[in-house]
Amino acid sequence: MHKRPVHCDRRLRPPCARVGILLGELSAPPATGYRRGVATFRLQGTKVLAVDMTGDAVKAKNGSMVAYDGQMAFKKMSGGGEGLRGMVTRRLTGEQMEMMEVKGQGTCYFADRASEINLVSLHGDKLYVESSNLLCADAGLRTGTTFTGLRGGASGTGLFTTTVEGTGQAAIMSDGPAVVLRVTPQYPLSVDPGAYVAHQGSLQQNLQSGVTFRTLIGEGGGEAFQIRFEGDGLVYVQPSERNTVGGDV
To answer: Organism's domain of life (predicted)?
Structure first.
């Protein structure tokens, strides 16, 4: 018995080849990390930040490195990474933020006084955070200062606060596990200045007085000022209050 020869239709070859390419594309391993080509932030527990780097860089609080593997280079940044203008601004306003640039291949671990750490993702928006609460940020994020007025005076943190802006990730610290509270136009939020850590979104803030006659004679709650947030955004609050100028009356 003679076997009938099998002929391959040439018209099928291009589609068959294309299917192979598609299958190869589908089987390609997915990219890791939150954004390709940028340092990857992840938490080790709640008090240590691990940053995986492949030649990229991050800004971190000066002296916050606790360990690393691979090859890392550390460089102190003047003015919190804002150059000479930022350095002069911070000295004039009393806003203290000493940062270092960390660049290399491997994983670097950051922590500061066993503080709790929260990761914040930015997508072209701006984060307002007390300088003492900023642990680490992508090198591509811009840092600056903004005027807080009486709110800063009441909280005891100064008249200016730090801003982080752009697309990337930042890590902020709190004294105890932070609570992230949502603010909407229908539901404004009042926060004790000593418990405030950071906020992001389209929010307006005003300092409101809680002083009443009962407060003055020692029968009030002792909360002389609060920060009132209105708009749409997120506010990060810590369960421990820092010392404030207007805390108790």
So the answer is: Bacteria
